Amino acid sequence: MSNKSTSKFISLILRHHPEIIGIVVDEHGWADVDALIRGVNKSRPLDRRTLEKIVAEDEKQRYAFNEDRTKIRAVYGHSIPVDLDLEPADPPAYLYHGTAERFVPSIEQEGLLPMQRLYVHLSADVKTAIQVGARHGKPFVYTIDAQAMQKDGYVFYHCTGGTWLTECVPPRYLLK
Ligand code: HQG
């Protein structure tokens, strides 16, 4: 089993379904590292060293350990209700959101909504946004007037790794 596939499985557990390996995440999204390793081992091999490598080398910095490295959480992407202790941050003038072409009519009407997740996820660069959109079909990238949103009182959060979060993006801030 590749580290990439194990990483996807860990994302699924920490963001959406800790119960599938019989673990819990606390209200801040933290799971016990030993419990995670034990749980993952029911279906695929994972040792501490490999987990450390997956976390350290993840290109989007999807995971974080707590200070004493006994706990781990996903940095973004959750559908389970967790408080990630996010601090509001000043966004760049523009952010990007990659979606699939087929969602465009609905997005034009409603703006960007978090759908199954806690936040709308935005990218700092177009290349990443294209990759995010391509997960859903033929990619379509929106440029978001983040500066105007912030001026109007919308709050942004910056995750390690270049992902930005906000609660919604009304249609008037979507530039083409
Ligand atoms: C779309 C991955 C219709 C939205 C990525 C997206 C990201 C609407 C889909 C992170 C809509 C939800 C999240 C509306 C939004 N009508 N469709 N009003 N508003 N949508 O997977 O942003 O690689 O929940 O455009 O890189 O694709 O796993 O969100 O297409 O950072 O670490 O509804 O997950 O991170 O899809 O992806 P998702 P996303 P990882």
UniProtKB/TrEMBL annotation:
InterPro entries: Ptrans_KptA/Tpt1, RNA_2'-PTrans_C, RNA_2'-PTrans_KptA, RNA_2'-PTrans_N
One Pfam family in the UniProt entry: PTS_2-RNA
SUPFAM superfamilies per the UniProt record, alphabetical: ADP-ribosylation (SSF56399)
Keywords per UniProt: NAD, Transferase
E.C. numbers: 2.7.1.-
EC main group: transferase
Top-rank lineage group of the source organism: Bacteria
GO molecular function, a single term: tRNA 2'-phosphotransferase activity
Record has NAD as a keyword: yes
GO biological process, one term: tRNA splicing, via endonucleolytic cleavage and ligation
Signal peptide span: none
Cell cycle recorded as keyword: no
PANTHER family: PUTATIVE PHOSPHOTRANSFERASE, TRNA 2'-PHOSPHOTRANSFERASE 1
Family in the record: Belongs to the KptA/TPT1 family.
Described function: Removes the 2'-phosphate from RNA via an intermediate in which the phosphate is ADP-ribosylated by NAD followed by a presumed transesterification to release the RNA and generate ADP-ribose 1''-2''-cyclic phosphate (APPR>P). May function as an ADP-ribosylase.
Protein name from the UniProt record: Probable RNA 2'-phosphotransferase
Name of the gene this protein is made from: kptA
